[in-house]
Amino acid sequence: MRTRTAALLGLLLALLSVPLTPPVPAAAHAVLVATSPVRDAVIGSPPREVVVTFSEPVSPVAGRVQVLGPDGRKVHTGEPVVRGGTLRIPVRMPDRPLGTYLVSYRVISADSHPVAGSFTYSAGAPSETPPPPDGRTRTSGALAPAARYVGYLGLVLVVGPVLLAVGMWPRRRSRRPVVVAACAGLGLAVVATAGQWVAQAADMVGAPVGELSPADLRAVGASAVGPVLGARLALVGVAAALLPAVVAGRSGRGRRAALAVVGVAALTTWPLAGHPVAAPLPPVSVAVGVVHLAAMAVWAGGLLTLVAFLLPGLHERVRARVLPAWSRLATLAVCWLVASGVAQAAVELGRPAALLDTTYGRLLCGKAALLAVVLAVAGGQRRLVRRGLAAGRPGRVSRAAGVELVATALVLALSAVLVQTPPGRTAGTEAARASREGVAQTLTSGLYTLQFDVYPVRVGTPNSLHAYVYTPQGQALPVVEWTVSLALPAAGVEPVRVPVDTPEPHHASAEVTFPVRGEWTLRFTARTSDVDQATVTAIVPVG
């Protein structure tokens, strides 16, 4: 009955978690969604600022957000202004020559992963030789997933052995191996946290681990992930003080309850430093992540304890009591493991097709296949236990458990890689989204050349419009009066005049709203003197 109840609870968790995910892709691993000026656009004159918009809140890495002019010199001033997912980079007024500009950025997304990239735009006309990109884009490489893997192993060595020692350990059996294993697990957790700290520093500054400075390492403490890793180390220290007495059976309920609370809090630091914090509903995703980690650690750690410390030399009558108890606990852990895994997959994939057409999805398929092998072997073991045959076949039980442990080790390795891989809902979308955002064109008349850009070209929301006027020789041409209008002839929408501002004599800016989809006609009339004016038009597709 308990097993059935556990299974129902696990499935209920999955069913409750999945519908909470909205149907539209959410953020995780920040994705570039818009730029101003538009990527690769040719605009009339250099802008006063560059705006870079991401799909989720970001934190810029100090000194790694910059604008390079056509001659390769830095033309930005100060640090970027950040509001949510938008970076505004001021550009110095005297240092804005015509030509191609390079914008490079390195930011930390809400889930603590670094995001780096660059794009260009041109003022007046493209340069023959664009400015060189910043070459410091290397990251921590294999250190980040290796640190995650070591951390998972530490959880396995702590959670499973301690739970079995407290709940089903024979009285005459020495518990010293469990204490040693748990202390080793805590040590691995410390090593993994230190490795994750160093990897985060390398990813933040885009430099190899060997070139990190003390200032780079200190910068992690000021980031969002720094307090999480610091809290993990503190919790590990508290667990180390409580654990020996609890394992040895010399503690009361208060100490055991305190250790349980500390353990749950420590487990929470893993999802808090990963994808769940950037999910649509972070509290739900973090809770599901904690359940998944706890179920994994109970199952794999308990299995390791059973094979390495408990079964060898144990009398058959004692095995007959221990194995059914372990089978019930393992079944409970597996139910929660599968249910929380399904919920996580639904959130991180975002769409069914991502299961096969993204790296994240394919890794998830490999993890599921390995887990299926483990579950098949575990199912055979459970049948033996239910028939009362497992206690008399310790060799078969140990061999089957060995297969489960090897497969589980591979599952943990894939999990360590998965948490460093962009989720299926965002993988591969940056280029497509950025290219669809914005329209930039150059229009000519007998009087002037007009260059304009509209971004992000969305229905029902304000879109920014900038227009610049130049002489045929490429010099800025002041405009006395601007007239800008929008029309949708196919739907019978007559021209509607758009109010404009003039931040510079040859530059007009406005906010335009497209209420419906269609091929909108954008008309500019620029009067450059009492008698000279010309009108140019463009078609802006709004999908």
Short description:
By secondary structure, this protein is an alpha+beta fold. The chain has helices at residues 2-17, 143-167, 176-205, 214-222, 225-248, 253-272, 282-310, 316-349, 354-357, 359-386, 394-418, 430-436, and strands at 32-36, 42-43, 49-54, 58-60, 66-68, 81-83, 86-90, 99-109, 114-123, 439-444, 449-455, 462-470, 481-488, 493-498, 501-504, 507-513, 518-527, 533-542.
Alpha-carbon distance between the two ends:
55 Å
Q: From N to C, what is the helix and strand string?
A: HEEEEEEEEEHHHHHHHHHHHEEEEEEEEE
Shape: elongated
Q: Please indicate the percent range of residues in DSSP E strands (runs of 2 or more).
A: 15-25%
Helix share bin: 40-55%
What structural category characterises the helix and strand content?
alpha+beta
**Which stretches of 5+ consecutive residues score pLDDT under 50?**
1-28, 428-436
Mean pLDDT figure: 78
Biggest sheet features: 5 strands, mixed
Write down how many β-strands occur, each being a DSSP E stretch of 2 or more residues: 18
